[in-house]
Structures are given as C-alpha cells and as structure tokens.
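Morning, I've got a small favour to ask if you have a moment. I'm working through a protein record and want to make sense of it properly. The fold is given in discrete form, as structure tokens running alongside the sequence. Can you walk me through what the tokens say about the fold? Thanks so much in advance, here it is:
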Amino acid sequence: MTDLVVPTTSDVALATVSTEENCLPGSNNALLLKMDEILQNQKIITKLLQSSTPETDDCDLEEPMVNMKQFQDFEKKLEVKGYRKRLVNSLSGIGGCSASEVIRRMMAMLGTVNLWSQFSYKGRNAKKKAFYASFLNKMILKASKKILKTCSIKELEYNVSEVLKHAPHKRGGPKFKENPSDESNTSFDTEPYLSSSSCGEEI
C-alpha cells in the first residue's frame, strides 16, 4: 500500500505562488485587452453618431435678413465653427453655373436689398459697413468655391462687391427709381440668372 504524502505548508505556499505567477498576469492581460477593445468600439460608435448628424440642416434663417441688427445677431452665431460649417453646406447646395449667378443666389437668400445697401465690400464709403471681414462673407466665398472649384477668390469677391454696389439702386433699395424701360433696376433676387459655361464670362 502506497504511503499518503501530505504536502507541507511550504509546498502549498510554493504552489500558490506558482499558480499566481502563471495565471494572474495572463488574466490581467486578457482583461486589459478586453477593456481596450470596448474603448475602441465606443470611439467608433461616437464617430458614427457624429457622421450621421445631418450637416445640411438650414441655419434657422427662415427669411432673408432685413436690417443690421439681424445681421449682427447672425454674425454672433457664425462665431461657432459648427454653425459656419452648416451654413457653408446649405449655401453650397444652391448651385449655379457662373460666379455672378451663384453669388446673387446666395446673397438673395441671406439678405434683402435694403440690408446689402448698407454695406460696401471694403468699407471705403464712410457711410457704409465693410463686408469683406465678416464671417458671412467668408462663408459665401467658401461655399462658392465648393460649387465653382476653378473660380478664383478674387473673381468671387468681385461679384460680391458688385451685388453690394448695385443694391441701393435695386427695387427696395434707398436709391431705387422706377423706370419701366430700365431692366437693370430689377431686384437681384428676382432677375433672370445668367448662365455661363465658365467662371467669369458674364462679367
């Protein structure tokens, strides 16, 4: 009959240490890997949620702005990067075949003749506000570039300045004069849009 060997306290201690050394590190590593996998999945889900947020929502501008107070309030909203991005996406959906067409469409959607009559592009007219440094001007140019990729910023700026320059003489502007035979006085938001196959041909 084989004698029963009873392990000593030291044998049990050694076995315990050996088991801890062989199992715990592996378990810890597996746990850490699992946690890392969960964090990565969370990041992916967050990105998917962000990308699924519609960026082409209108920027709560239901009607064109009519006065300087509305313009200034809108400028404050445009201080937020996300809001600027939404505006650019909205404006770039307007489309158009030429620089003048695109710019006039955008500015007609954003403001009335009365509002634009209060601006000049560079502000050289002391009685008018400078438009070129505004957030809105930058967004108009950026959105226009998305539509007319080959058009230069200089070309787009010229067309913005033309809208501002002629606004006072359009219907609704302070210098408008009724003249049935003069179609040039038609409001820029209702006049027929020029169609041009390339940027700048209509200027």
